[in-house]
Design brief:
The chain contains seven helices and 28 strands. Strands 16-13-17-21-20-18 form a six-stranded mixed beta sheet, with helices on both faces. Strands 19, 22, 24, 25, 26 and 28 form a six-stranded mixed beta sheet that branches. Strands 6-4-7 form a three-stranded antiparallel beta sheet, with no helix packed on it. It has four domains: about 170 residues, 3-Layer(aba) Sandwich (Molybdenum Cofactor Biosythetic Enzyme, Chain A); about 55 residues, Alpha-Beta Complex (Molybdopterin biosynthesis moea protein, domain 2); about 110 residues, Molybdopterin biosynthesis moeA protein, domain 3, CATH 2.170.190; about 70 residues, MoeA, C-terminal, domain IV (Beta-clip). Helix content is about 20%, strand content about 25%. This is Molybdopterin molybdenumtransferase. Belongs to the MoeA family.
Length: about 425
């Protein structure tokens, strides 16, 4: 990485570095079993089949009366059919037996009694309310001789959710590689499964470096600043579905190597700061001899970068090294690491990208790909902020990243640029 490389070339290099990690995580033998209560966001390691029918019995889609369609086939507004009221069925009741020539009160989700093949909503009945039924009432509370009228025929199957209409026994609930969303977990629970086999999550060790850093809430001494990068990047990494451990290293190469070695479960090390050409570049001093390459990407912000396999004891551990300025860290993450980590957990890898008109003229260094924070106006144009890599508050208010490609040094108001939506 001696001569500057393009952002596209560096993105490919990062993807190649992490390809073995992806291959290892998707191996069937790497799967782990977790309770569904802790499975949200995980990715299924294998096809998941249903051991039961869902629903396990025919149930009613409406509050109403279960009937045999043939018993009301002749019903009309001028000549309604009246049927004696039979035994009621509420949610949780055992499946009953429908008596031919009667109408069985049935509640939403309750079993449709065997022998009935349709449900007529209570609003279409006469009377349009249940007779003698209340909060704990069943058939014994229906007055003797009570009947209910129907003014229209009904097709068999109307408002009946048949056994197995959602899932048949042995059907695939979800295929391998599915990320477990709330709806997916509900479907799994409906099939009676309490745990699932999922791919292991990548474990990322996130290292912030610098004697000047203090944790938020701690008192600041002269020349000290609060550590913003650990908070922003740990949140950004967590959104991709990886497990994150955050640590801070002093400006000491041996201490940095010791800190990495103390986390043998890490699959990937991401560092922030200490990668440029200064006199106190601790990450470079520690990891370049271990095998990590450092250099520049033709990008602003985020030019200094590092990547490679670091020999840490008996391990070779992939390292992605970002610069330390807060905006540089986040832009580097968006450009090079977020797409790969999102793909590991079957999340959309790319930000939504569209073209937008500039609300004002901008300049850009012609030899670099510039990434500017901005916001969309109501008229669809984009207003971009300054390019400086320390302007984190501008980033916090941004809704888009605007891209000015290499070779462009100025764009007038109204010119179109590619933007990535970062608010979705």
């Amino acid at each position: 990485m001696s001569a500057p490389v393009t952002p596209q070339e560096h993105a490919v290099a990062v993807a190649e570095l992490l390809a073995p990690l992806r291959a290892r995580l998707i191996e069937p033998g790497a799967a782990e079993t977790v309770p569904i209560a802790r499975a949200a966001g995980h990715v299924l390691a294998a096809d998941l089949t249903s051991p039961v029918a869902v629903p396990p019995f025919a149930n009613s889609q409406m509050d109403g009366y279960a009937v045999r369609a043939s018993d009301v086939a002749s019903a009309s507004a001028g000549a309604p059919v009246r049927l004696p009221i039979g035994a009621a069925s509420a949610a949780g009741d055992p499946i009953g037996v429908h008596v031919v020539g009667t109408a069985s009160p049935v509640m939403t989700g309750a079993p449709v009694p065997d022998g009935a093949d349709a449900v007529i909503p209570i609003e279409q009945c006469d009377p349009a309310h249940f007779i003698g039924l209340g909060s704990a009432a069943h058939a014994d509370d229906v007055p003797p001789g009570a009947t209910v009228g129907f003014a229209a025929p009904v097709e068999p199957g109307t408002f009946v959710r048949g056994t197995g209409t959602d899932l048949a026994p042995g059907a695939i609930i979800l295929p391998a590689g599915t990320r477990l969303t709330p709806a997916a977990l509900g479907s799994i629970a409906a099939a009676g499964l309490a745990e699932v086999a999922v791919r292991p999550r990548a474990h990322v060790l996130l290292l912030s470096t610098g004697h000047e850093l203090r944790a938020p809430g701690a008192p600041l001494g002269s020349g000290q600043i609060y550590d913003a990068n650990s908070s922003s990047m740990s949140a950004a990494l967590a959104e991709t579905g990886v497990d994150v451990t955050t640590a801070t290293s002093p400006d000491d190469a041996e201490a940095l190597l010791t800190l990495i070695a103390a986390h043998p479960d890490a699959d990937l090390v991401v560092t922030m700061g200490g990668v440029s050409a200064g006199a106190f570049e601790v990450v470079r001093d520690a990891l370049e001899p271990a095998g990590v390459r450092f250099g520049h990407v033709a990008m602003q912000p985020g030019g200094p970068q590092g990547l490679g396999l670091a020999r840490i004891g008996e391990r070779e551990l992939p390292v992605v090294a970002f610069p330390g300025n807060p905006v540089s860290v986040l832009v580097s993450f968006e450009m090079f690491l977020r797409p790969i980590l999102c793909a590991l957990s079957e999340r959309p890898a790319l930000r939504p990208a569209v073209q937008a008109r500039l609300a004002h003229a901008i300049t850009s260094p012609a030899g670099k790909h510039q990434v500017r924070r901005g916001a969309l106006r109501e008229d669809g144009s984009v207003e971009v902020g300054g390019p400086s890599s320390h302007l984190l508050h501008d980033y916090a208010r941004a809704t888009v990243l605007a891209h000015v490609p290499i070779g462009v040094d100025a764009l007038p108001a109204g010119a179109e640029v590619e933007i990535w939506r970062i608010d979705e």
